[in-house]
Amino acid sequence: MSAANNFRRTLPALFLLCFLSLFSGVYTDELQILLKLKSTLLQNSDTHVFNSWEPTRPFCEFDGITCNSDGSVTVIELSHKNLSGFLPLDSICQLQSLEKLSLGFNTLHGTIMEDLRNCTKLKYLDLGNNIFNGPVPDMTSLGDLQYLSLNNSGFSGIFPWKSIVNMTGLIRLSLGDNPFEPVPFPQEVVKLKKLNWLYLSNCRMEGTIPAEIGDLTELINFEISDNNMSGEIPKEIGKLKKLWQFELYNNSFTGKLPFGLRNLTNLEYFDASMNNIEGDLSEVRFLTNLVSLQLFSNNLSGQIPAELGEFKQLVNLSLYANNLTGPLPQNIGSWAEFNFIDVSENFLTGPIPPNMCKRGR
Ligand SMILES: *[C@@H]1O[C@H](CO)[C@@H](O)[C@H](O)[C@H]1NC(C)=O
Ligand SMILES: *[C@@H]1O[C@H](CO)[C@@H](O)[C@H](O)[C@H]1NC(C)=O
Ligand SMILES: *[C@@H]1O[C@H](CO)[C@@H](O)[C@H](O)[C@H]1NC(C)=O
Ligand SMILES: *[C@@H]1O[C@H](CO)[C@@H](O)[C@H](O)[C@H]1NC(C)=O
Ligand SMILES: *[C@@H]1O[C@H](CO)[C@@H](O)[C@H](O)[C@H]1NC(C)=O
Ligand SMILES: *[C@@H]1O[C@H](CO)[C@@H](O)[C@H](O)[C@H]1NC(C)=O
Ligand SMILES: *[C@@H]1O[C@H](CO)[C@@H](O)[C@H](O)[C@H]1NC(C)=O
Ligand SMILES: *[C@@H]1O[C@H](CO)[C@@H](O)[C@H](O)[C@H]1NC(C)=O
Ligand SMILES: *[C@@H]1O[C@H](CO)[C@@H](O)[C@H](O)[C@H]1NC(C)=O
Ligand SMILES: *[C@@H]1O[C@H](CO)[C@@H](O)[C@H](O)[C@H]1NC(C)=O
After folding, report:
1. Which PANTHER family match (predicted)?
2. Which of 260, 257, 293 shows the shortest CA–CA distance to 277?
3. How far apart are the C-alpha atoms of 355 and 361, rounded to whole Å?
4. pLDDT score for 361
5. Cβ(169) to ligand 4 under 6 A?
6. Which of 63, 166, 232, 333 holds its CA 20 to 30 A away from the CA of 318?
7. pLDDT tens across 329-343, in order?
8. Best of 106, 174, 198 to mutate for ligand 3, by most ligand atoms within 8 A of CB?
9. How far is CA 213 from the centre of its chain?
10. Where along the chain do its domains lie?
11. Nearest ligand to the C-alpha of residue 90?
12. Which residues contact 90 (CB under 8 A, 6 or more apart)?
């Protein structure tokens, strides 16, 4: 057989081989990426999660890994797994189909580098509750994100607020409990019309809540406590009809509880304690689903509305250190398993409600 003949016969085979390895190459790479993740984190972690991460097994069957029908990794779910060490995002973000990266509640450390930019398919990113440091890098290329949790994770510097403008599908934004540089409440946030969860407590927010907050009509949770915010609570808050929890304690808010608050009839948890809020409690009369009402250490005056005595779910009530007058509603505590009441340091008069402790809680 001539060399030419031989070549002609092996060419298709060679071609096929190249073709195949081109495909399986992607998967070999994905296996290598996962094994690198394992070896990087295993050195420092006391975890069992990598026991199933053996090269002899299909990596789509590794604990915490999910693949699409093409056999490419879409999900890394390794939250609450005792993971410590430095996160090799440079290789993780080479996973072409990665949509969910969930690493919350571990002790991962180090700085999050620009490598994150290559994770362009991500819809879900949770790096919260770790011990990272340094700033959060630009994330403009992560325009598909729907869930972003970076709370309580040691991030500092100025958060890249411009990046979130591109995340028009964002549903959840949790950035609280990080020592960021002080900034005014970012206007970029009120453009995210699909947000239903906004957690910005204890992350050095300043300035006022913009009136446009009323555009975020999907919000069910809005938390901005333990910051240095001031000004009045905008009346546009009244447009957030789905709001279930509203927490703004320990700031310097002034003015009255806004006219319109009364419309938040789905509100169950409301805490505006430790501010300089004045005026009376008349707006609260309509919030019949309240479970917990905390307004202590303000400058509220007038009487406690009789309607509070009829709130069927109310179990916690803290109104101490205000200027309230008159009697307590006599039915208070007779409906639900009343848990906590403190109305001290006011100018209240009249009898103690007779049924307040009848459920023995
Ligand atoms: C994490 O550590 C705890 C206590 O050491 C252990 O009980 C648990 O199984 C560990 N979890 C994993 C996923 O390894
Ligand atoms: C993104 O990945 C490419 C290779 O696919 C690499 O050349 C580039 O440096 C990466 N960019 C960042 C910011 O990591
Ligand atoms: C903080 O982040 C964790 C995930 O790391 C998330 O489950 C939790 O809901 C976040 N907390 C708030 C108040 O958003
Ligand atoms: C914004 O996100 C889209 C994907 O949703 C992306 O195509 C675009 O490049 C992003 N813009 C910037 C400035 O990165
Ligand atoms: C109030 O918030 C500040 C941060 O703005 C914090 O340092 C302080 O401990 C908080 N006070 C209380 C009583 O929680
Ligand atoms: C709070 O914000 C005001 C400006 O509104 C500023 O003067 C003050 O220094 C800030 N306080 C803290 C503790 O950052
Ligand atoms: C409360 O909601 C009703 C019905 O949507 C609306 O007509 C009214 O203007 C709202 N009131 C305030 C004070 O926002
Ligand atoms: C409380 O309100 C009263 C009456 O509006 C006002 O005179 C007083 O200065 C306020 N006190 C504080 C601590 O804001
Ligand atoms: C109660 O009101 C008086 C006068 O209206 C005011 O001087 C005082 O500061 C108020 N107390 C509180 C706790 O705001
Ligand atoms: C009521 O307050 C108590 C004591 O602060 C707390 O332990 C409990 O979880 C609260 N219950 C609700 C439903 O908020």
Report:
1. OS10G0469600 PROTEIN
2. 257
3. 12
4. 60
5. no
6. 232
7. 988 877 777 888 888
8. 174
9. 17
10. 3-264, 280-361
11. 2
12. 113, 115
**Beta strand 252-254 with 245-247: parallel, antiparallel or unpaired?**
unpaired
Residue 276 in contact with ligand 8 by CB distance below 6 A: yes
Atom 5 of ligand 8, residue of closest alpha carbon:
278
Question: Ligand 10 site: residues with CB under 6 angstroms?
Answer: 291-292, 315-316, 339-340
Using CA positions, which residue lies closest to atom 14 of ligand 7?
260
Task: Report the C-alpha gap between 90 and 117 in whole angstroms.
Answer: 9
Go through the chain and tell me how many residues it has: 361
pLDDT tens for residues 228-250?
999 999 999 999 999 999 999 99
3-state secondary structure of 58: coil
At 11, the amino acid letter reads L
Phi-psi region of 204 (alpha: psi -120 to 50; beta: other; left: phi over 0): left
Instruction: Give the CATH fold of the 280-361 domain.
Output: 3.80.10
Distance CA 319, CA 340 (A): 11
Q: For residue 263, which ligand has an atom nearest its CA? A: 7
Position 145 scores a pLDDT of 98
**Contacts for 196 with CB less than 8 Å, ≥ 6 apart:** 171, 172, 218, 219, 220, 221, 242
Which ligand lies nearest the alpha carbon of 324?
9
Q: Can you give the pTM of this predicted structure?
A: 0.90
Render pLDDT for 92-150 as a digit per residue (tens, 0 to 9).
Answer: 999 999 999 999 999 999 999 899 999 999 999 999 999 999 999 999 999 999 999 99
Which of 211, 273, 263 lies closest to 242, judged by CA?
Answer: 263
What are the CA-CA distances from residue 55 to residues 21, 33, 62, 73, 101 (Å)?
Answer: 18, 11, 10, 15, 21
3-264 CATH, one of 3.60.110.10, 3.80.10.10, 2.60.120.330, 3.30.300.30: 3.80.10.10
Q: Six-digit token pair at 268?
A: 């169950």
Question: From the CA of 228, how far away is ligand 6's center (Å)?
Answer: 6
